[in-house]
Amino acid sequence: MRDESFFLNPQFDWQRRYEALRASFVDRLPAKVVADKFGYSPGYVRLLKHQFKHGKIDLAEPVPEGKTRRRRVTAEVRGMIRSWRSSRLSAGEIAQLLSEEGIELSVRTVERILAEEGFPKLPRRTRLEIGLTVKGAEVPQRAEAVKIDSLSGIRYDCPGAGVFLFAPFLAQFNIDKIINRANLPGSKTIPARSYLLSFLALKLLGTERYAHVGDHAFDPGLGLFAGLNVLPKCTAMSTYAYAMDEEHILRLQQSFVTQATALGLYDGSIINLDFHTAPHYGDESVLEKHWAGARGKVMKGALCLFAQDATSKLMLYTAADIQRTEADDQVLSFLSFWNSVQRGVKPTLVFDSRFTSYSKLSQLNTQGIRFITLRRRGKKLLRQAEQQSDWQRIHIPHAKRKYPNPRVHESTITLRGYKGILRQIIVSGNGHEKPTFLISNDFDTPTELLVGNYARRWRVENGIAEAVKFFHLNALSSPILVKIHFDVAMTMVADTLYTMLARKLRGFESCDAPKLYRLFVRGKGLVKVDNRGVKVTYPRRAHNPILRRVHWDLLPCRLPGLGGVPLKLKFQ
After folding, report:
1. pLDDT per residue rounded down to tens, the chain (572 residues)
2. CB contact at 8 A, 369 and 381
3. Hey, how many other C-beta atoms are within 10 angstroms of the C-beta on 167?
4. Closest CA to 111 of 125, 126, 90
5. Residues of 471-489 as b/e, b for ≥16 C-beta within 10 angstroms?
6. Is residue 176 a contact partner of residue 196, using CB atoms and an 8 Å limit?
7. How far is 539 from 528, CA to CA, in rounded Å?
8. Which of 563, 475, 461, 516 is nearest to 205 (CA)?
9. Spatial separation of the C-alpha atoms in residues 333 and 459, rounded to whole Å
């Protein structure tokens, strides 16, 4: 006969859980007291309360222990369960579909039937795979390589259609040859060529940060430019950027500059060199502090090196994440790079006073490399300049120079750490309050040309300013991390392509990238794909007549991303 001991000393698990929950919610007993009374731990009591609050505990009286009772399922229902599992639906999804059909089965019963039918458990899926995303959010496709045969007959509007203007110039470079020489890595679904063109497409469109690649996630035209259905996601691009080491990036630059030299893009006689600090604003960083000239202070960032061909104003070498102890050696590193791509050509290097040390200048002189730089002036040098009387007036043949007729005083000097004598030219009356002290190992070039060659060093500073303004070189604090040196190298490639486009546009040969983008590149277009190739039609715009005057038929109008299929550009 049952009495109060049935309630005070429950024997069945379901009843013990019930009494424990009742003691917690109704009698308001602490978890420690309930745990000691019913043989649980305090943590398990708290778990029971949490599950009860969220409806995860069924307190209906189960089948008495020692007996089993299973729900009988008809052959028709089993067939429905098998069919849905063949579509890779989970047990919970199948139970919900059965409920909509008026058949109430628990998830546990569906799992049992699936096991009896020989179906293994599904692997764990992410929330995105299940479809548990933000309500109403559209999920972009997964990036995959495509072929022209599978795209025949497709047409769509492309918001970033201006990127196809650069395809003929990429075809001139033979991008596949560059990638093979550099031995760039790829993945099973996305080849190296598509990854490289994806980064390049974002650079050419002036995308502020790579984290904004989501703005182009639904543009199949940009994916077609890279040989994909859509551009890769942020994580894929970040992972790829960090998969390349310094050797990959160096080989990429060597291959690119070699091809550019074969196309006659560089003069190579005078090369401007300069450092730039790309600032970083994060709280935790291993980056050192460097001088940021644009901000006039020392700040944390990545020290980058740029080498520019003085005649064409094209960047031809970059380095990044340079340590302070490595800065003086960068001029020799560039010289080693230059010798690997231009054997036998010895350029004149132009840089400022803090670029390297006097001992490195001596090594340059030993190798027969001419240089033009500044001498670090102090009060003693300024007093000596004031005492000079035999000044000469020269004329610098620059059409737009504000002070074309400065005064100069020329002499020979020696410096500590430099083996040999140097040519010193003191320049006054050039718009600066204090005179400038030029030093060089070039004793043959006329004074006017020597001063003029150094004066043109501002071109590399303008190039860096353009890289910061349009190619967003300073965006190191982006949520999507990209290897600094790879980002700088892609900036060099994009800058070269913009210069090649400018040279084909009558009246706009000297325009910078922001203006070219605003007038010619920005805007949408209609992309059509058939068995003969790809056709891009641009709507009516004010500057379309200039684009129509370009002899596109003389250029290799092919799409490198799709293996060189024909590309036709039409301007309405």
Report:
1. 566 777 777 777 778 888 889 899 888 899 999 888 888 888 888 888 888 888 777 666 554 554 455 567 888 888 899 889 888 888 888 888 888 888 888 888 898 888 888 888 888 877 666 666 666 667 778 888 888 888 888 888 999 899 999 999 999 999 999 999 999 998 888 999 999 999 999 889 887 666 667 778 888 889 999 999 989 988 888 888 888 889 999 999 999 999 999 999 998 899 999 888 887 766 556 678 887 776 778 888 888 889 999 888 899 999 988 888 899 999 999 999 998 888 777 899 999 888 999 999 999 999 999 999 988 888 888 888 888 888 888 888 776 777 888 888 999 999 988 999 999 999 888 778 888 899 999 999 998 888 888 888 888 888 888 877 787 775 554 545 678 888 889 989 999 999 999 999 999 998 889 899 999 999 899 999 988 889 999 999 899 999 999 999 899 999 998 888 999 999 98
2. no
3. 26
4. 90
5. bbbbbbebebbbbbbbbbb
6. no
7. 14
8. 516
9. 22
Tokens 């005064």 locate to 407
N-term to C-term CA, the chain: 97
Phi, psi at residue 17, to the nearest 5°?
-65, -40
Number of helices and strands in the chain (H, E): 23, 15
442 CB neighbour count, 10 Å cutoff: 14
Task: Please identify which residue in the block is written with the tokens 């222990």.
Answer: 65
Q: Are 81 and 94 in contact (CB under 8 A)?
A: yes
Three-state secondary-structure class, residue 475: coil
Contact 408, 392 (CB under 8 A): yes
Q: For every residue of 479-528, which 3-state class applies, written as one string?
A: CCCCCHHHHHHHHHHHHHHHHHHHHHCCCCCCCCHHHHHHHHHCECEEEE
H/E stretch holding 456: none
Q: Give the integer Cα–Cα distance in Å for 416 and 522.
A: 54
